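PT: before anyone asks, these are the final sequences, not the draft ones from last week. 806 residues across everything. Please model them as a single complex and drop the result in this thread when it's through.
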Amino acid sequence: MIGLDGLEPTIVDALLAEGALPNLARLRASGDYARVGTTNPAQTPVAWSTFATGLNPGGHGIFDFIRRDPLTYLPDLALNRYEQKNAFSQPAAVNLRSGTPVWERLSQAGIPSTILRCPCTYPAAPLRGKLLAGMGVPDLRGGLGTSTFFTTQASIQAGEAEIVVPLKRQGDGSVTGPLVGPRNPKDRTDIELPLVIRPDLARGCAVIAVQGVAGKLEVALGRWSDWMSVGFKLGMLRTARGLVRFHLVRLEPEVELLASPINFDPDAPLFPISAPGEYVRDLANEIGVFHTTGMVEDHAALSNGRLDEAGFLRQCEDAWSEREAMMVHELDRLDSGLCYCLFDTSDRVQHMFWRFREPDHPANLGRPVPTGFARVVADQYRRADAVVGQALARADDKTLVIALSDHGFNSFRRGVNLNTWLHEQGLLALKPGVEPSEEAGDFFRSVDWSRTKAYALGLGGIYLNLAGRERDGIVKADDAQPLKTQIATALSGLPDPRDGKTAIRSVHPREAVYRGPRIGEAPDLLVNFNSGFRASWGTSLGGVPAGIVEDNVKPWSGDHIIDPSLVPGVLFMNRPFKTANPRLEDLAPTILAALGAEVHPELEGSPLLP
Amino acid sequence: MKIIVLHLSVTDPIEFLDDPETRGVAALMSNGPHGLLGSHECGSPFQILRSVLAMSDWKSVFSALDTPELLDHLKEDDSLIGVDVAQAEPGETLEAALSAIDGEAVVVALSAIDASGNRAFVLTTTEGLPSIRVNEMRANDLVATILELAGLELGSSPALCDAQSFVPALTETAGAGAIDDEELVRERLRGLGYIA
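LR: through. Structure below.
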C-alpha cells in the first residue's frame, strides 16, 4: 500500500497520456485505476484517518488540523494532545484519532503489518508488526517544525514558524550564537547550546561546532549538512536528545545559516514515535538516520526566504530518498501481511510550487518566477511513479499492490475571510471601536462574545456560539437550526466581489456530512470552497481581517481544502476492482478482505475487489 | 516510573540542607521543595512508604545498598527503590543514582535524620518541582506527595493517617511563572503551513 499524498487526478491523467508514469500505467494495465472520493474536508490527517479506520470523520474524530476549546475559544492542534496526571508528572502524548485502524484489526487476526509514516499515528500504539509514526510527530520544541535562522545581519524579524538568532562576529573570524532547543519545562524559557560557525570563504563552506557535542560539521554553501546529535538538559534529571542539520545560506557579506527543526533522536525519542519503541532506533541503524518530525519539508523556510527553491527541493529529495529506503528495506523483509508507506513530499511541493504552473497567480506578483520550476510539480509525480516501480519490483503474483492519493490538488489564489463575512452579516461582533483589520488580531482577540452568534476557525468550519457549550454562548438550542440554515443559505454561492466568480459552492450542516460518536466535536457548518479559493490565512486562527475575499500572495500557492468533489484522490491496484465511486472508506475493508481477515460491520465501506 | 527514596543519617539536618559542600543535595534542592520534616506517629517516610506499598502490587526494594548494588537496581527494576545510605559520603551515592536515571520518569526523595530523630527532606522529579522551603510538611504528607507525583492512588492505608499531599500547593507556586498559552499554541500550529 503506497500512499502518495495529494496526487491530483487531472495531472496523473495528463502524465499517463504522455507515458510519463510507466509504473502507474503498469498497475492500471494489470488491474484498474479510478478516482477515489475523499473526505470533507479534503485534508491529509482527516483523509488518512478515514483510510486507516474505514470510518467517516464523525467516527474517528479528526475533522481538521485545528480544533477549538469551546471554553476558551482557543485553537489547538487536532491530531494529538499531552496529558499530565499532575503539573509535575511527565506529560503523555495522546492520539486524538479514535476508531480501530486496519493494522489493529489485522493484529487481532494474527496478521502482521508494517506501517510507515501514516498521519495521526502519534504516539505509536502497539501492534503486531512495526509502526513509525507520521504527521503529528512534533519537533523537540513541541511544534510541528520550527527552524532557526542565524544571521549576522541586524534587525531581521522572525517570519513564519521560525526563530531568528543574531550572530556575533568574534575576533578570530568565527561567528557565534545560541542553538535554541526545547523549552525548560519548569519556566518555559528556551534551553540553548552555544554554537560556533567558522566561515571558510576560500572553500565556500563553514565548520559548525556546538558545545557539548563531540566533533564538528562541515557544510558547503547552498547545501545541507549531515545530522548532528545534540542534547539539551531539561533539568538535573533529564536530557532531551535531538538531531539537527544545517543549510549554509550565505557566507558574505553576511553569514547566514538555517538550522532544521530539532528532530527527536531515534536513539532516545522523548515520546513514543515507533512501535515497538526500539523500532525507530533499529531502522535508523539499518538504513541511516532520517527525519522523525511528522512534516519534514521546511516550507516555512522557503516562504520566509531563508531557503531558495533549490535548497528546498534538495531537502525534499532527501525526504523522498529516506522514505524510499524505509519502504524498500521493509518490502525486502516482508513475507506476508500489510506494508504501508506514505510519501507526502508530493503534497508539500505542490503547495509551494503551484504558482510556477500559473504565471498570473497572485503569489507571483513582485516575486521572481524562474522558468525552470514549472516542471517541478510533474517531477514529483514521476518521483512517485518511481517509488511505485520499486514496490512492483518486489511484488510477486500473490501480492496486492495499491497506490492511493488521499486527495487531489488545486490552485489557491483567493482567500475568504469567513469571520469578516460573519461580521458583515451581524453574526460576529467586535469590541467597540474595532473594525475588521489586521489590528483586530487573531485568536478572536477583539471579538465581543456577548453579541456573537457564530465564528469561523480552522480551514472551513463555522461554529455557533452555542449557550451551554461555548463559554460565553448566546445562541439558544432552539435557535441553532434556523441560524445554521440562515448562514448556509446566505454563504452558499458567495461571489468574489472582484469578478463575480463563485467563491463558495455550498455550506452543509455537520449532520448532513458526518455520523458517529465524535460528531459533537465537528464544526457546526462545513464550507465547501470553489476551485482557486480557500479559507483565508487569517480565518484559520480566528482573525477578522479587512475585506471578504483577498489575494493569496504567499508562496504557499496550491491547496486542496475545497469542495471535496473537486479534489478526489487517485486509486490504482494491480487487480481489477469496482471502479464505480470508490471512497477512502473502502480501502480498509479491501485490505482486510484481501488478507482474509474479518470485515467488521462497523466499517463503513465495502471491499473493492470482486 | 521509579520512586527512589534515599535514607541518610546525618549529624544535623539543618546543616545538611545548608551545607553547599554536600554534593548533589544543593542541585536537588534547586529542583524541588525541601525543608525540615515534622514528626509523625506513623513513623518515618521510609517506614510509611514501605507500609503503604506492601499492600499494593508495586514492586519495591528496601534495603541497605552500596552504590554498585543501587545502580544495578536502578537499571533492572521499574519500581520503588528505598535505600539506606550507610556510606560516609552520601553525595557520592546520590550523584551516581542521578546520573544513572537520566531521562527516566522518577520521583526522588531524600530523607535525612539525626541521632535525635530530627529530619530534613528534599524532593524532586524528572520534570522538576518548585524550589521552595517547606517546614510544615510531616512524614506522612511527604509520602502522600510522593505517591501523587508518581501517579499512584493514595488508597486508605492507615499508615497515611490524615496525610495531605503538597502537590496542589506546589502547582499553585509553579503556575505563577507560566507563559502565555497563546504563544505556545501559535508555535505548535505554525509549522502546519496551512495557517497564518
